[in-house]
Amino acid sequence: MDIIAANHLTKSYRQYRRFPGLIGSVRSLFTRQFTEETAVNDISFTIGEGEAVGYLGPNGAGKSTMIKMMTGILVPTAGDIRVLGAVPHEARKTNARQIGVVFGQRSQLWWDLPVTDSFDLHKTIYQIPETKFKQNLQMCMELLSIHEFVEKPVRQLSLGQRMRVEIAMALLHEPRILFLDEPTIGLDVMAKDQIRHFLRMVNRERKVTILLTTHDMKDIEEICPRMIVVNKGTLVYDGSVEELRARLGNERRVVIDFREDPGPLDMPGITLLQEEGLRKTYLVSRSESTVFELVSRIAARYPVEDASIESADIESVIRRLYRQLADEESIGRQIG
Ligand SMILES: Nc1ncnc2c1ncn2[C@@H]1O[C@H](COP(=O)(O)OP(=O)(O)OP(=O)(O)O)[C@@H](O)[C@H]1O
């Protein structure tokens, strides 16, 4: 069953022009000149119950705008969005009970109160029955290790601690859908791991539908079998990582240990990705030649100690997609 459906969804922001100075501000009041920016442009997709979907795109692609429309904070300019069969901005109260929301940059917690008080307030606001509340709280506290700081006021928590509390709070009323905007941004590796494992469990075992925005490909790898990629407001990809890898020509990563630094390699179809001393990682396009052939050509010309070939990780697949999009745009500009 589809529980989220976007149909030709569009959101434009109007930016009114401001004229400088005092006279200018009076002028601004009367002329009302504006420019329009389309943050979400004619996007359609459906998400079924129990799915976990990553929503990615470069900065300014329109991800937060999309989440805000799904949660009913923003009203679409055109098209249609339905969440649990309802129009989000018309059903904010009823939907709130079935939706959990975590915005990485903004808190839902009570800053001056101890964490436990925020949980209790949430219980009252959402009228969560005592036993259900206790069970859910217990589960979240344990799996997210919240016990250690549950008596502290929220303002004293580290970012990683606060984020774990935000996620726990969003789940106490047992929502069917969980929206997360950048849930792991700015966290250390351990905190990221803990949150990813937890979200994976919530999705796989509790069957909560998850939609998250992220810039971190590991979030996608560990939580989301499906990803939707947007760029400048439009949808550019909807499918699995494997399908995207296949579509982009299946690039490979080649890690080479050199005996001495070879400098830039004079070889077509190979891009330097990473350097750690004499160990260098390259991205190799398979269309240029077979990877083995290429590695042996490198070994014939440069002092190679060892080499290994890996499939392109998701990060390089996405990097390649973004590069392709940027190339298409610059070609479009030249033609236009
Ligand atoms: N309130 C607003 N008024 C005017 N323009 C806005 C507003 N909010 C967002 N925009 C513009 O809409 C576009 C999409 O913004 P949005 O925040 O949805 O992108 P994003 O994909 O979440 O970006 P990021 O990855 O940087 O968080 C941007 O160009 C942004 O400047």
Automatic annotation (TrEMBL):
Tell me which PROSITE patterns the record gives: ABC_TRANSPORTER_1 (PS00211), ABC_TRANSPORTER_2 (PS50893)
SUPFAM superfamilies for the chain: P-loop containing nucleoside triphosphate hydrolases
Q: Which UniProt keywords apply?
A: ATP-binding, Nucleotide-binding, Transport
Which Gene Ontology terms cover its molecular function? ATP binding
Domain named ABC transporter is located at 24-257
One Pfam family, short name please? ABC_tran
The molecule here is called ATP-binding cassette domain-containing protein
Give the organism, scientific name.
Answer: Paenibacillus terricola
**Native organism taxonomy:** Bacteria, Bacillati, Bacillota, Bacilli, Bacillales
